Structures are given as structure tokens and as C-alpha cells.
Recover the amino acids of this structure.
């Protein structure tokens, strides 16, 4: 069954769901699943696994989540699996080294805030929320060996990240080999019709098909979506790399980070991160190609659209005004956050930068200072100077880079 052979009432939905995907595996799978669900009078069960390795969802996660929302709007059910068990194993996808395993406490802490963030995008009335410890934690060694019999080492080494590490004689733990097996077992447990994920998850999603087939069930169709580059314009958006825009962070930060992306990425962010139509994205592409002021205006439009999605129109307008005050008019915003420095004298700047959230560690804060990226008012702090008298800081505006500012008080 191809998309062209679908009845008219299913064809439009298929075209919407297929738009923007990187791959549909098998190619006719989505059309076949839609037709089957329609004939059986039931919604499709559309699965997504969430890895609780961090506590914030980013625009990179949102690319997949927004596709899930389209399934919901067509009447289908999203099955969200919080990987509280697999998070303790560690998915090596896209990594060149063994990942540090998480404890049960860490996975629980990280996943605690997920649901609220997810519902900024998804319709909670069409979500089935599961944790894969429900079925994985109770598996015996006999169960694991029985499932492992459905995969071969040769299949596992087909994964690009494993193949690269194998060729470079880098370690691959047996635990990592088990991860695709566990993720595939999730698909069996929740009877997934479709699984959605990034292109870096293709192998794992296909393992779900193999295991479902081994259990005598109809194998899921796989939809992969493009990976979103981070604000650095090169690597995949990641909190650990600091190149991310979180869907739950303040509007001012979302707008400022969106304005920091390289111009060539503007069109991609318009396509993957906004509700702009294809025609509107084409307009943005034309403006970006012109360069200069036109490209800047196009990026502003995309930044407004991103903030509007998660914070509303009023917040987007205010965020743009805040950005203008900082970078166009060079004014200190009236709503600038205040931070108390206390009575310690002198003030240790690396520690202060960490307390403000301007740097993840004191070593990173020292690097900012050594790069000349820290200012007190209009004066740059000299590289290598890590302590300042409290009197010089009291009432001053401390800046680190272009977007991070705070007014200091004692």
C-alpha cells in the first residue's frame, strides 16, 4: 500500500506526517499502518523513548515531539516511555567512548521534570506515560538470554558508532550491546505501531521491529527525523555541549540564543523549530540568501516564532525588546536580575560566575575571565584577575559574554 493508493480521507494525514521526516522504514509502512488503524477503528500507538540523562528538554527534542503532536491531532495515541531503567544502562549512540552509567536516584531526579515540559508540546489527553522499569526490572537472566538470541554480534556491529570504536580498538562494553535489545523490548511491551526518533536512533528502532516479529507481532514502522544542530552551528544540540535552547527556559534566553545561531542555520530552525508554513519558510530562505539586514530580520522572525510557541506572543515581544536594549540600543534593561554578593571582601569572581549560572564550573569561569569575556559595567576585567574589591561590584552590572548580565548588590 503506497501513499498514492490511500483513500482521500487518509492521504492528507499521511502527507502531513511524512513531511519533514528523514526516513520512513519500510517506505510504505506509514501508509499501511494508517489504513490498518482506520479499518480497525482504533488509534495508532506511536512510541517515543525519553532518555533521562539530563533534566531539560531542548529544541532538539522538540523536533520529534512536534511530530508526535501531529499524530495526536489526527486522533492517534502517543506512548511516552521514560527510560528510567535504560537510563541506568547508557545509550552509546553517537558517542566515541563508554558513557557514565546513571544511578536509579539520578534517573528519577532527571525524569521528574520531564512531564511538565513535554506537555508544553503534547496534548496530555492523548498520552500514555510509561516507565520501562515496569517490564525490564523484572526480567530474569533466562529472559535476557532468550531475547538476546534474536540478535547477532554482526548485526550490532552494523551500528556506525560501534563500528568506528571497534575499528579504533576502543572499548565497547557488553552492557552497551544490550541497550538496543532493551529499547526493542520496550516496543514489544507497549505494542507500538510506530516508533519515532532521531536519525541517530535508526538502528535501535529497527531492532524493535526484529523483536516484535520474533514475538509474532506486526513490526512497528520507523519514522526518523533530522537531528538539529546546536547554536554553535556544528554539533548536535546537547546540554552537555552547552549549545542548546531549552523549551522551558526564560523567553529572554530563548530569544537571545536563537539570535546567536549562524545565519545559514536560520532556515533549518524555521523548518524544524517553528509552525511556519512551507511558503513562509521559503520567504525566510530568500531573506537569508540576501544577507545583511534581511538575514538579520529573518533570524528575528524565527526567534519570535520559537518564543511564541513556548511562552506566548506577549513574552516574544518583550524578549525582542530586551534583546534590542542590550545589543541595538546598548541599554541596561530595567528588569535585569539582581544578585546579592554579601559582605565577603574581596569577591572571588569564578565562584560568583558559577553562582550566577554564567559558567558551569569555576574552571570554566576562569576561562571566561582569561578570554576577557567578563565586564563590570563598561570595564573589562583584566585576564587573570580573579578577585575584585566588593566596593567595585556593589551596584554594578556584571556581564559574561553577550547575553548574560546581572546587577550586583551587597
Amino acid at each position: 500500500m503506497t501513499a498514492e493508493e490511500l483513500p482521500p480521507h487518509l492521504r492528507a494525514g499521511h502527507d502531513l506526517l511524512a513531511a519533514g521526516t528523514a526516513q520512513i522504514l519500510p517506505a510504505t509502512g506509514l501508509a499501511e499502518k494508517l489504513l490498518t488503524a482506520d479499518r480497525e477503528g482504533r488509534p495508532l500507538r506511536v512510541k517515543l523513548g525519553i532518555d533521562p540523562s539530563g533534566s531539560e528538554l531542548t529544541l532538539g527534542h522538540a523536533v520529534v515531539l512536534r511530530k508526535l503532536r501531529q499524530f495526536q491531532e489526527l486522533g492517534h495515541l502517543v506512548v511516552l516511555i521514560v527510560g528510567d531503567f535504560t537510563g541506568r544502562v547508557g545509550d552509546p549512540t553517537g558517542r566515541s567512548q563508554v558513557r557514565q552509567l546513571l544511578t536509579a536516584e539520578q534517573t528519577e531526579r532527571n525524569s521528574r521534570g520531564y512531564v511538565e515540559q513535554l506537555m508544553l508540546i503534547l496534548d496530555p489527553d492523548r498520552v500514555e506515560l510509561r516507565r520501562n522499569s515496569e517490564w525490564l526490572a523484572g526480567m530474569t537472566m533466562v529472559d535476557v538470554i532468550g531475547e538476546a538470541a534474536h540478535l547477532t554480534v554482526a548485526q550490532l556491529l552494523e551500528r556506525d558508532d560501534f563500528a568506528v570504536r571497534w575499528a579504533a580498538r576502543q572499548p565497547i562494553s557488553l552492557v552497551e550491546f544490550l541497550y538496543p535489545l532493551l529499547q526493542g523490548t520496550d516496543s514489544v511491551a507497549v505494542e507500538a505501531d510506530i516508533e519515532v526518533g532521531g536519525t541517530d536512533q535508526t538502528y535501535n528502532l529497527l531492532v524493535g521491529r526484529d523483536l516484535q516479529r520474533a514475538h509474532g507481532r506486526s513490526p512497528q514502522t520507523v519514522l526518523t527525523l533530522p537531528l538539529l544542530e546546536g547554536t554553535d552551528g556544528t554539533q548536535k544540540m546537547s546540554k552537555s555541549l552547552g549549545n542548546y535552547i531549552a523549551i522551558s527556559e526564560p523567553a529572554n534566553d530563548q530569544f537571545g540564543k536563537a539570535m546567536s545561531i549562524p545565519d545559514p542555520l536560520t532556515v533549518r530552525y524555521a523548518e524544524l523549530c517553528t509552525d511556519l508554513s512551507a511558503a513562509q519558510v521559503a520567504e525566510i530562505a530568500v531573506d537569508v540568501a540576501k544577507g545583511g539586514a534581511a538575514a538579520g530580520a529573518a533570524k528575528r522572525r524565527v526567534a519570535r516564532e520559537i518564543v511564541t510557541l513556548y511562552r506566548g506572543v506577549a513574552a516574544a515581544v518583550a524578549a525582542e525588546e530586551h534583546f534590542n536594549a542590550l545589543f541595538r540600543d546598548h541599554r541596561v534593561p530595567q528588569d535585569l536580575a539582581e544578585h546579592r554578593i554579601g559582605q565577603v571582601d574581596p569577591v572571588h569572581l569564578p565562584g560568583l560566575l558559577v553562582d550566577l549560572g554564567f559558567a558551569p564550573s569555576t574552571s570554566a569561569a576562569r576561562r571566561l575571565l582569561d578570554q576577557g569575556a567578563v565586564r563590570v559595567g563598561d570595564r573589562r576585567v583584566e585576564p587573570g584577575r580573579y578577585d575584585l574589591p566588593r566596593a567595585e561590584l556593589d551596584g554594578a552590572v556584571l556581564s559574561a559574554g553577550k547575553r548574560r548580565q546581572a546587577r550586583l548588590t551587597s
About this structure: DSSP finds 19 helices and 13 strands in the chain.
